[in-house]
Design a protein that fits this description.
The protein has helices at 8-21, 63-71, 100-110, 143-153, 180-198, 224-231, 235-239, 249-252, 259-266, 293-304, 351-375, and strands at residues 25-28, 31-35, 51-55, 76-83, 89-97, 114-116, 119-120, 122-125, 131-137, 157-163, 171-177, 203-206, 279-283, 286-289, 310-318, 324-331, 339-345. The protein is an alpha+beta fold. The chain folds into 3 domains: 8-125, 2-Layer Sandwich (Alpha-Beta Plaits); 131-206, Alpha-Beta Plaits, CATH 3.30.70.330; 293-375, Double Stranded RNA Binding Domain, CATH 3.30.160. It is globular. GO terms for molecular function: RNA binding.
């Protein structure tokens, strides 16, 4: 099978299986996920060594073949299939079970299993690393500032610890993530994000060992709704002037925060060129958007009486990396100046989904501008 040709019969078989079994999948940033946990789950939450790594998967094999196979060993807490732009899988997946014993059974029973003629699955224990080391940060970096910046740029950031000393240029940071997947996604995009957002060149590598003192949990983060509710002044006042392109004077003069981080906490929280990571869910066998920024912005506007946001979306061009670039204008009736910007997203399963992703990305940028402008007052 040509790696660029989609097997429509296999795709249809997946759609039929989703409908008949009422199985729900979510698609996020290059992977499709089942569970984590499933809707019905009465077992324990998986701990260490409960996940297996599956490779040598035929490119046109999907969850309708893989989930029943790996569920035959024991109930799946989560199954993640890595996907490419064409709609085929990338040849590998992760399955997580309730215990390390069941994961060991999956390796013993399914390693070498012939899923299709000529394709024997490779099943091994997953490494599940979830700590990254970010090197070459400015010497004046503060832990709380870096934590705030990372939580804007990446998902699943739990805590940060800084280290400096002989042989270390500037400051290095050990960042703990909620899962191996969120750490892996951050590793792929943070170097470019720091370069585009802050004009900083950093290096990022896996951190194999972590001191227990650096792994102590921080207080839980507030949800987006409670954060906005507690920090926003009346929305009409905050948004009555255009978003500032320069640093707020108070933050610009703060000597202890690096200039790049000043921009992060004082200006728009996400660069126009930082990809939006949309979320999809499957309902009735079809993938539909499940992200919430549009709904959140609507509720904030309702609460402050400024009227419902109106979206104008224009697809500008497709980049060589597969991302689509959308120019947006968001008008809020009670606000004089519309919000304008550029977002980049991966194509959705349908044109309708793609447009909805772009709206969600635009709403997310508007919310972040509102919040960051509020912090500067």
């Amino acid at each position: 099978l040509d790696n660029k040709v989609l097997n429509l019969e296999r795709v249809q078989a997946l759609e039929t299986w989703l409908k008949t079994t009422n199985t729900k999948l979510t698609q996020v940033n290059g992977q499709r996920k089942y569970g984590g946990p499933p809707e019905v789950w009465d077992g324990p939450t998986p701990g260490a060594r409960c996940e297996v790594f599956i490779s040598q998967i035929p490119r046109d094999a999907y969850e309708d073949l893989l989930i029943p196979l790996f569920s035959s060993v024991g109930p799946l807490w989560e199954f993640r299939l890595m996907m490419n732009f064409s709609g085929q899988n990338r040849g590998f997946a992760y399955a997580k079970y309730s215990s390390s014993g069941v994961a060991a059974d999956a390796i013993r029973l399914l390693h070498g299993h012939m899923l299709e003629p000529g394709f024997r699955l490779s099943v091994h224990r997953s490494t599940e690393k979830r700590h990254l080391c970010i090197e070459d940060l400015p010497a004046s970096t503060r832990q709380e500032d870096l934590l705030q910046v990372l939580r804007v740029l990446a998902e699943g950031v739990e805590r940060v610890s800084l280290k400096a000393g002989a042989g270390i240029e500037g400051v290095s940071a050990i960042v703990a993530f909620s899962s191996h997947h969120t750490a892996s996604m951050a590793k792929k995009m943070l170097v470019e994000a720091f370069k585009k957002q802050f004009a900083l060149t950093v290096s990022i590598k896996w951190q194999s060992s972590v001191n227990s003192s650096a792994d102590e949990p921080l207080p839980p983060q507030k949800s987006s709704v409670s954060l906005l509710a507690s920090s926003l002044r009346p929305l009409r006042h905050i948004l009555s002037s255009p978003p500032a392109s320069a640093l707020p004077p108070r933050l610009a003069c703060h000597p202890s925060i690096p200039p790049g981080f000043c921009r992060a906490v004082g200006g728009p929280a996400v660069s126009p060129h930082t990809p939006y990571s949309p979320t999809f869910s499957s309902e009735g066998g079809h993938l539909v958007s499940a992200a919430a920024p549009v709904m959140l912005l609507q509720k904030v506007c309702e609460a402050t009486g400024v009227g419902q946001p109106l979206y104008e979306m224009y697809c500008s061009h497709a980049g060589p990396d597969g991302y689509l670039y959308f120019i947006y204008k968001v008008r809020i009736p009670g606000i004089t100046v519309p919000f304008k910007g550029l977002v980049m997203i991966l194509p959705g399963p349908t044109p309708t989904n793609t447009l909805e992703e772009a709206r969600q990305a635009a709403a997310q940028q508007v919310l972040q501008r509102v919040h960051r402008n509020q912090l500067s007052h």
